[in-house]
Design brief:
The complex is a heterodimer of chains A (113) and B (112). In chain A, 0% of the residues lie in helices and 52% in strands. Chain A has 113 residues and is mainly β. In chain A, strands 2, 4, 5, 9, 10 and 11 form a six-stranded mixed beta sheet that branches. In chain A, strands 1-3-8-7-6 form a five-stranded antiparallel beta sheet, with no helix packed on it. In chain A, strand 4 and strand 5 form a beta hairpin. The termini of chain A are far apart. Chain B is an all-beta fold and 112 residues long. Helix content of chain B is 0%, strand content 54%. In chain B, the strands form two sheets. In chain B, strands 2, 4, 5, 6, 9, 10 and 11 form a seven-stranded mixed beta sheet that branches. Chain B has strands spanning 5-7, 10-13, 19-24, 31-38, 42-50, 53-57, 64-68, 74-78, 87-94, 102-103, 107-111. Chain B contains no helices and eleven strands. Chain B starts with a strand and ends with a strand. Classes of the chains: A mainly beta (113), B mainly beta (112). Chain A binds chain B through residues 34, 36, 41-46, 49, 89, 91, 95-106, and chain B through 4, 31, 33, 35, 42-48, 50, 55-56, 58, 90, 92, 94, 96-106.
Chain lengths: 113, 112
């Protein structure tokens, strides 16, 4: 079964620090890797996404690093702020888009002031 | 531009009943996907519709069904509700399904 394994399950980071969340996948047909942020009572919000033809993508304080040979990708949040406290999900998709997103189990991130 | 809207936001049903949830995608988006979110199983893909046609379906029983209308609005239906169907049901829209998916706030379904 297609899987995306996400770690850690929970993470506590001091304000101003770097938050790092990792994901690993098995299906080499995956060709799109987004990250979502979810606050309690809200739907997931798209943060940043990457395709396997690039190894890194940066948008503001958020960076995705992608290692195709290792089948791993990670989210780095620089200068983490208390407002970043949320649950983060990595996901992957194949099949040109008709397939649904396969999600990791999520990481509960807490940024301590 | 308005985001994805889902109605109702909260719903309480009893076992054996059926339920219909509604999703209005972002204007211009023609693809609608549905997901179930539970604490135990996380986010799981239910099905995806494009131009009124179901293009893909996740690993859910036939009690879960959906449809899409000509204006791209979508509904999902769950028949013969079970306690385990209690979940947050999320709808996501994209331009064509090959693009970014944007989620609505979800419908919280509680089955008693």
């Amino acid at each position: 079964q297609q899987q995306v394994k996400q770690s850690p399950q929970s993470l506590i980071v001091q304000k101003g620090g770097i938050s790092i969340i990792n994901c690993a996948y098995e299906n080499t047909a995956f060709d799109y890797f987004p990250w979502y942020q979810q606050f309690p009572g809200k739907g997931p919000a798209l943060l940043i996404a990457i395709r396997p033809d690039v190894s890194e993508k940066k948008e503001g304080r958020f960076t995705i690093s992608f290692n195709k040979s290792a089948k791993q990708f990670s989210l780095h949040i620089m200068d983490s702020q208390p407002g970043d406290s949320a649950t983060y999900f990595c996901a992957a998709r194949s099949g040109g888009g008709a397939d649904g997103l396969t999600f990791g189990k999520g990481t509960h991130l807490i940024i301590q002031p | 531009k308005a985001g994805v809207t889902q109605t109702p936001r909260y719903l309480i049903k009893t076992r054996g009943q059926q339920v219909t949830l509604s999703c209005s995608p972002i204007s211009g988006h023609r693809s609608v996907s549905w997901y179930q979110q539970t604490p135990g199983q996380g986010l799981q893909f239910l099905f995806e519709y494009f131009s009124e046609t179901q293009r893909n379906k996740g690993n859910f029983p036939g009690r879960f069904s959906g449809r899409q209308f000509s204006n791209s609005r979508s509904e999902m239906n769950v028949s013969t509700l079970e306690l385990g169907d209690s979940a947050l049901y999320l709808c996501a829209s994209s331009l064509s399904g090959h693009n970014e998916q944007f989620f609505g706030p979800g419908t919280r379904l509680t089955v008693l």
